[in-house]
Amino acid sequence: MPTLILVRHGQSQWNLENRFTGWWDVDVTEKGVAEARAAGQLLKEKGVLPTRAFTSVQKRAIKTLHLALEECDRLWIPETKDWRLNERHYGGLTGLNKAETAEKHGEEQVKIWRRSFDVPPPPLEADSEFDLAGDARYAGIDVPNTESLKLTIERVIPYWQEEILPELAKGETVIISAHGNSLRALVKHLSNIPDDEITGLEIPTGQPIVYEFDAELNPGEYYYLKDA
Ligand SMILES: O=C(O)[C@H](O)COP(=O)(O)O
Where in the sequence is the domain holding 219, given as residue range(s)? Predict the structure, then answer.
């Protein structure tokens, strides 16, 4: 049975510091490493062993993938990294503290920037220290200067359809190690969550989520592997 495992990266340094991160390439903390290892141990314990892996080009997701695969002895499986699985771009909020931003602009405005479906944060200034346009990994890519969830969906779902779904069609057990909002994009699509209900979906770090697909590649309800 084709199976999909989604894992949000373990805690990052800026998760810990409560800063907007987006495309900025922040590492995992010690706690994040432990979360990633625990995710891999859970895969092993439950016998849900990935045969194919996808991740973003951001180290917090890549490291989480590798730590988890190491724990379930699957470091050898084929893996693909792609920017389309990156976190949504946080624009001009990148690097700012979330609580301080709420004090400055109000809780309501920050909630809109963080959880609305189609309101992007203010764009990143071209001379910002967080501008990644010159980063080698994005050569030839039009790096966005901000993204809403809607814009994130517009790059995640075509990638899902073109690159990941064909692997599931072969019967693979696919693991995707990615980010809060690139995974929200995917869960919204797979579970048919309406635009106005997606605001309520929070994806915790390091907790494997599983979808099982039928022969027609229709996904069932997702569940947390720890509860299975
Ligand atoms: O990019 C970030 O700051 C986090 O990974 C996700 O942030 P959010 O919870 O504000 O969507």
Answer: 3-90+147-227
